[in-house]
Write a structure and sequence with these properties.
The chain is an alpha/beta fold. The chain contains twelve helices and twelve strands. It has a seven-stranded mixed beta sheet, with helices on both faces. Strands 9-12-11 form a three-stranded antiparallel beta sheet, covered by helices on one side. Strands 1-10 form a two-stranded parallel sheet. It is globular, with a radius of gyration of 20 Å. 44% of the residues are buried.
Length: 352
């Protein structure tokens, strides 16, 4: 018996998360190693007493807290079940069969998958030789069918960032009615020089078609609860609210995110340590002869090409799980020094 399932889904791969196994050192999913802060755990415990009730569908308290923290109005905030859901919802509100969604490649795997689920066509523009978004080429690739553009900055999986001048020039070239989503899932890890210092919220005030996406999954350490948000023009937020899956941001996630915002300084201090470790890991890998991009995220990208799969397989055999992209490279999460040392020890042995 063949059930009535869309036949075009047969050609669509499922999203593959970072793998792990008992006892492994998992460096495949860009998670933080430290547990949530006590204040966050307490907020979750308190919220758990009310899980017999539906969560606040509008995430009003969280939206108000975000608006106050970011200096925007509540009408410019839309929460979601992780920023990945907001990526999917942006595609839903802009694109359908015959439309195009444009993004650099390689970048976040969800972009092409969610685009094809919507029946739209993904348009992938190759990164530069330095694994950075080629914004000039992306602007040139815009057509009358383009309905949405994603710019992942820092880019996942390469960790690279675009220059502030290039981004501004890009936004000036893009039609003003074409939504550009600046995916800043890893923004808290960026330690930019003057040329790469991008104030996304200021840009959004200047370019109403810009949507800024952020998440609590990475630097805030709430990956297991799934909560993210978009900062956008009220017209975009109104459209996103129409495709929002009811009650999808659960009560525990909302309470935890509010508590995390209250402890922001303490949580973001952890990113300083990651930035230091990122530089150390990158320098040691380059000294070993590995091609490593200039990462501004909590991971590094090894452009290993055809050796990517073999490297990842050998790492697993050594008890270290990394994220391979066959034929292209390997992404490795940067965490605390002892975990990074374990990976570096493997990297040395693989080169021996």
């Amino acid at each position: 018996m063949t059930l009535r399932i869309r036949p075009d889904l047969d050609s669509l791969p499922a999203y593959v998360p970072g793998k792990t196994f008992p006892g492994a050192l998992k460096l495949a999913s860009n998670e933080v190693t430290e547990p949530p802060l006590p204040a966050v755990v307490e907020a979750i415990a308190a919220a758990a007493a009310g899980i017999n009730r539906y969560p606040d569908n509008g995430a009003v308290a969280l939206t108000e807290a975000l608006a106050a923290k970011l200096g925007v109005t509540t009408s410019e905030i839309q929460t979601g079940d992780g920023s990945v859901t907001l990526c999917q919802n942006l595609i839903t509100i802009t694109s359908g069969p015959g439309d195009e969604v444009l993004f650099g490649w390689r970048s976040f795997e969800t972009y092409p998958l969610a685009t094809r689920v919507a029946g739209a066509t993904p348009v992938q523009v190759p990164l530069t030789g330095d694994a950075v978004h080629d914004l000039e080429a992306m602007a040139a690739a815009v057509t009358d069918r383009t309905r949405l553009i994603f710019v992942c900055n820092p880019n996942n999986p390469t960790g690279t960032v675009v220059s502030a001048e290039a981004l501004r020039s890009f936004l000036q070239r893009v039609p003003s009615d074409l939504i550009v989503a600046l995916d800043e899932a890893y923004i808290e890890y960026v330690r930019p020089d003057a040329a790469h210092a991008v104030d996304a919220l200021a840009l959004r005030r200047e370019f109403p078609n810009l949507v800024v996406l952020r998440t609590f999954s990475k630097a805030y350490g709430l990956a297991g609860l799934r909560v993210g948000y978009a900062v956008a023009d009220p017209e975009v937020v109104a459209a996103l609210s129409k495709v929002h899956v009811p009650f999808s941001v659960n009560s525990l996630a909302q309470a935890a995110a509010i508590a995390a915002l209250g402890a922001q300084d303490q949580l973001l201090a952890r990113t300083d340590a990651v930035a230091v470790e990122r530089a150390r890991v990158s320098d040691e890998l380059r000294a070993l002869g590995y091609p490593v991009s200039e990462s501004q995220a909590n991971f590094v990208w090894l452009a290993l090409g055809d050796d990517a799969a073999a490297f990842a397989t050998a790492a697993i055999e050594a008890g270290v799980v990394v994220r391979p992209f066959a034929g292209e490279g390997v992404r490795v999460t940067v965490t605390v020094s002892d975990e990074n040392d374990a990976f570096l020890a493997f990297a040395r042995s693989w080169k021996a």
